[in-house]
Amino acid sequence: MCIVGVDVAKGELVACLYWPDRSFDRPWRIASPVQIGLFVEKLKELSLGCPLVVAMESSGTYGDVLRQALGDNGIEVRRVSSKAVKDHAETFDGVPSQHDGKDAAVIAELCQMGKGSPWPWKQQCEEDQALRFWIRKLDTAQRIKQVYCGKLESLLARHWPEVFGLLKQSGPTLTTALMRWGDPRALAADPQAAAILRSFGGRYLTDEKIRQVIAAAGWTLGVRMSPWQARELQAVAEAIVQKRAEIAACKKELKKLAKDHATLQAQKPAIGLVTACVLWMCLGDVRNYASAGAYRKAMGLNLKERSSGKHKGQLSLSKRGQRLARKWLYFSALRWLRESAVKRWVELKKARDGGKGGKAVVGVMRRLALAAYHVGKNGVEFDPGRLFPGVQRSEPRAETARR
Fold first, then answer.
1. Structural domain of 19
2. Cα separation, 2 vs 54, whole angstroms
3. Per-residue model confidence as pLDDT tens digits over 121-130
4. Number of domains in the chain
């Protein structure tokens, strides 16, 4: 058998032929994408004389063109972990150096040692493709919204600092008001301001709060705004309003897609519908995992440590796998922290860890990962009392959390 290790870069591929006696040929350099067709033809010729396997790293999207071409021509592809390649570099030849040709040989050797997993090119079904589209669109809109929220905070701190104690900084009421008036003094001078603010905030904005906002806009100590500064504030607020509407539209589409999806509906009470969709996109079907620990490990939430002799290392997350899964599971953990019983659990955890709250949030994330596995694979009803002892959620609170 010949194993062809391929190191993938943006404009060039490096391939190395590796043989069972641990010998290997000089690397081939393939210009990407213009020489990929020629490379595949040479591999087909080689496969006529011996069994052939191509081993590749998981290197983003740069290798997808080659994977598709290999799959179309019936050539087996296996994936080797990038971390394993880095760790094996010194074992390979006794030198801790890495370059494209050596990496290609290391990838092939690891595959020959049984460290590779099947990695055929296959197109997702239409439902999964739609799910991926809306999740990526939602995540992009949220990241852009966060950038504008940071800009808004700095502008308000300069021109209207008093509003921080009255309205939520990036909430719909304040951003819609800033989109309309721009300058807080213009808001205070508008005789219709009270009625307009009431239409923005609805039943969540009391008459007393409206009076306080208008008063604070009139006597603010903030830096007086020029027309261009007011225009900038309006533009930032408008961008936040638009991105919020885009996020809401994406969530609506995800809700439609997940309506008849048994696994996503089962995970929804534990981690929320959007997070369940993200896990499905990043990790695949939960039923393909042998255990809850394996599912959590695929998220990068398994623990690691470095201890030697008398030195006892600190536990930390491996953070392997896609960052997007951990990000949205973190949001789910923050929503659970609003529950009073979970807060008590977190306080006890913080006390055990010397007052460090970050570890408590990570603890909630790790527990939610296990819960998502069990309810998604086994179809059992989610019971928060088993996840956090002492939690008793009433139905109105659960409905509020979902909203």
1. 2-118
2. 9
3. 988 899 999 9
4. 3
